[in-house]
């Protein structure tokens, strides 16, 4: 097997605030190869965005502290690099797009300026060349009349167009890995599908690695190759997308899938997961999911489940992982 | 944009008329004989009173008086004082000095205020932050005449003799720097705090995060992305402040003995020279109105989300 593009290993991050220490990441490990899409799935506060921000090196430190772990990009640990070296990786090696493109784009500069800036500052391109390339990029993300729109401001774009512009900007330096942090959450359903198609297409064309952060199972099913499910700062399950939908290997994933609305169960009450995700300043002992888990038993309260290897790269952090999978 | 400018310019007309009428009415409607004390210890000669009354249209109803005054003003005639000195001439010698002083004050307050605000905004709760917060509080709580006297005394020849604090009748820019600093000191404190708040608010914003995620150098993240957004309210403040500084120069000019508009208006009020007072205040109103128009136009340039249709 070739070396993965990005390897996150046992990453621990905590936020030290006045109210105490919040353990936001408690040993996150995942990897992505070129041309592959990894979906990171989880509720708000599960740590999926923090992991992405740690990879990018854009976490506010302090209050955040990386206490353990490594992030290897092309085999080199990013966490041991200097701030300047890490800056060079951003945009060029790993690029990121964000949830709300309206606030993520600078309101007082034109879309063209924000794309050209990358080319001029990072690549030393001339103004005219950068403009030409910006139009090409906008064209690639299928913005109609790219030449005319390049000098528009973000607020003059529609929601979907804005996200396309954001994607164009992230592609400016031809990154090898793209992290998309809930890229479609702020958009309506039809536009969501268009953006996801665009991302999938671009990824295929450029043979890029992609980490897709989302809480939307529907989005995942279409484009992801593999899925990592996060809960309370841990990866609780990791599986091939098809395998995961066929037979979830962790009760949390199982509950997530059960809470999807289904046409054949129309009229019945929608299943939800009881309770709330744990407070990260006070994670329950044992398995963090145990207070909400329908299959919890006494061992779950006392013992943190180890990673169970279920074969074919599948893992689950559940004491009875084998049993859960078999039932599905 | 063109239509907006035109509309704003047209809006200036009623505002201008309203304010100048108010000033005119207030100055001339004082319940006192305008001629009392004008002719030394003796009451004025009836022929002088008749002549001046005719000249100042004092026998007409107030509204007529005002429009006659306005008519003269529009032809550039500011009228004369009771002694027959041309008000227009007085203003034209003092005006450039006050204008220069005002501009210097704005430049100083912008430069120091913004730099202090940016530095403290980026490093909240550090030594510099506390230093700036305390010193701005100090400046805000001190009246301008105290700051002026203290600086003049201690920096000048009677104090530590650091610089020459006297100002000549036709002052150079160098001579006006200390008075400009004093005049702008209060606003400087506000600018520093406004910039600091604005920077603190924006530095955690999504677009700053994007700029960092793009791998832009720190200098560009702060100097271009953060600063451009954070300075919008500051520049609005600075623009309107230019107008108020001109009017507020009275005290500073008094402290430093500067031959500006402030001294003129002060004497005008003391000596009940109505023509002088209305003339100068009208001019100040005009400056203020134009400054605020400029700010509104600048606002649209700085923030493209604001468009005047």
Structure description:
Chain B: Pfam families: BPD_transp_1 (PF00528), BPD_transp_1_N (PF19300). Chain B: It is a multi-pass membrane protein. Chain B: This is ABC transporter permease. The complex is a heterodimer of chains A (328) and B (309). In chain A, 35% of the residues lie in helices and 23% in strands. With 328 residues, chain A is α/β, with parallel strands linked by helices. Chain A has an 8-stranded mixed β-sheet with strand order 6-7-8-3-9-10-12-11, with helices on both faces. In chain A, strands 2-1-4-5 form a 4-stranded antiparallel β-sheet, covered by helices on one side. The relative contact order of chain A is 0.14. Chain B has helices spanning 2-28, 46-55, 62-74, 87-122, 127-141, 144-155, 173-203, 206-213, 218-256, 261-270, 274-302. Chain B has 11 helices and no strands. Chains A and B meet through helix 2 and helix 4 of A and helix 8 and helix 9 of B.
Q: Which terms summarize this structure?
A:
heterodimer; A: 328 residues; alpha/beta; 13 helices; B: 309 residues; mainly alpha; 0% strand; flat
Range of helix content of chain B: over 70%
Number of helical segments with 4 or more residues of chain A = 13
Mind summarizing the main beta sheet of chain B? none
**What is the share of helical residues of chain A?**
25-40%
Q: What is the structural class of chain A?
A: alpha/beta
Shape label of chain A: globular
Helix/strand/pairing class of chain B, anyone? Answer: mainly alpha
Radius of gyration of chain A: 21 Å
Question: What oligomeric state is this?
Answer: heterodimer
């Amino acid at each position: 097997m070739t070396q993965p593009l990005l390897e996150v290993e046992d990453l621990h991050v905590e936020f030290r605030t006045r109210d105490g220490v919040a353990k936001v990441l408690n040993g996150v490990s995942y990897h992505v190869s070129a041309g592959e899409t990894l979906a990171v799935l989880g509720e708000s506060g599960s740590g999926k965005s923090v992991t992405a921000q740690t990879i990018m090196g854009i976490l506010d430190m302090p209050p955040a502290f990386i206490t353990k772990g490594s992030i290897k990009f092309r085999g080199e640990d990013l966490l041991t690099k200097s701030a300047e070296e890490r800056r060079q990786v951003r945009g060029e090696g790993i690029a990121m797009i964000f949830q709300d493109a309206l606030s993520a784009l600078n309101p007082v500069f034109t879309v063209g300026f924000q794309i050209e800036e990358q080319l001029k500052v990072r690549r030393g391109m001339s103004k005219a060349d950068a403009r030409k390339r910006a139009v090409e990029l906008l064209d690639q993300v299928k913005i109609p009349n790219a030449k005319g729109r390049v000098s528009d401001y973000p607020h003059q774009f529609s929601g979907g167009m804005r996200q396309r512009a954001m994607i164009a900007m992230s592609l400016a330096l031809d990154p090898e890995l793209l992290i998309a942090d809930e890229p479609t959450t702020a958009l309506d359903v039809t536009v969501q599908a268009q953006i996801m198609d665009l991302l999938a297409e671009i990824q295929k064309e450029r043979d890029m690695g992609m980490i897709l952060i989302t809480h939307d199972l529907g989005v995942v099913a279409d484009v992801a190759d593999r899925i990592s499910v996060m809960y309370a700062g841990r990866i609780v399950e990791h599986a091939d997308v098809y395998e995961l939908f066929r037979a979830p290997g962790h009760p949390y994933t199982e509950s997530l899938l059960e809470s999807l609305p289904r046409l054949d169960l129309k009229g019945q009450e929608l299943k939800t997961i009881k309770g709330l995700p744990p407070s990260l300043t006070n994670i329950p002992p044992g398995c963090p999911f145990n207070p909400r888990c329908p299959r919890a038993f006494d061992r779950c309260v006392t013992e943190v489940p180890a990673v169970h290897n279920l074969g074919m790269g599948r893992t689950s952090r559940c004491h009875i992982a084998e049993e859960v999978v078999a039932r599905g | 944009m063109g239509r907006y400018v035109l509309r704003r310019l047209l809006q200036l007309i009623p505002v201008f008329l309203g304010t100048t009428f108010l000033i005119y009415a207030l100055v001339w409607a004082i319940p006192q004989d305008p001629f009392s004390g004008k002719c030394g210890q003796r009451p004025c000669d009836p022929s002088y009173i008749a002549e001046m009354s005719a000249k100042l249209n004092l026998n007409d109803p107030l509204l007529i008086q005002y429009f006659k005054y306005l008519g003269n003003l529009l032809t550039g005639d500011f009228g004369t004082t009771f002694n027959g000195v041309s008000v227009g001439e007085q203003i034209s010698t003092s005006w450039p000095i006050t204008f220069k002083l005002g501009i210097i004050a704005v430049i100083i307050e912008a430069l120091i205020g913004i730099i202090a605000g940016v530095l403290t905004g980026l490093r909240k709760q550090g030594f510099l932050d506390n230093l700036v917060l305390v010193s701005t509080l100090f400046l805000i709580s001190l009246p301008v005449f105290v700051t002026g006297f203290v600086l003049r005394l201690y920096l000048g020849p009677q104090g530590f003799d650091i610089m020459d604090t006297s100002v000549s009748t036709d002052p150079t820019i160098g001579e006006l720097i200390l008075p400009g600093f004093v005049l702008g000191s209060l606003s400087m404190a506000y600018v520093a705090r406004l910039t600091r708040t604005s920077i603190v608010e924006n530095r955690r914003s999504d677009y700053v995060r994007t700029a960092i995620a793009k791998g832009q150098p720190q200098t560009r993240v702060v100097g271009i992305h953060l600063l451009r957004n954070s300075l919008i309210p500051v520049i609005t403040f600075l623009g309107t402040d230019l107008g108020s500084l001109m009017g507020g120069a009275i005290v500073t000019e008094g402290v430093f003995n500067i031959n500006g508009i402030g001294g003129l208006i002060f004497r005008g009020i003391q000596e009940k020279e109505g023509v002088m007072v209305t003339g100068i205040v009208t001019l100040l109103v005009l400056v203020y109105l134009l400054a605020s128009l400029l700010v509104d136009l600048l606002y649209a340039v700085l923030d493209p989300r604001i468009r005047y249709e």
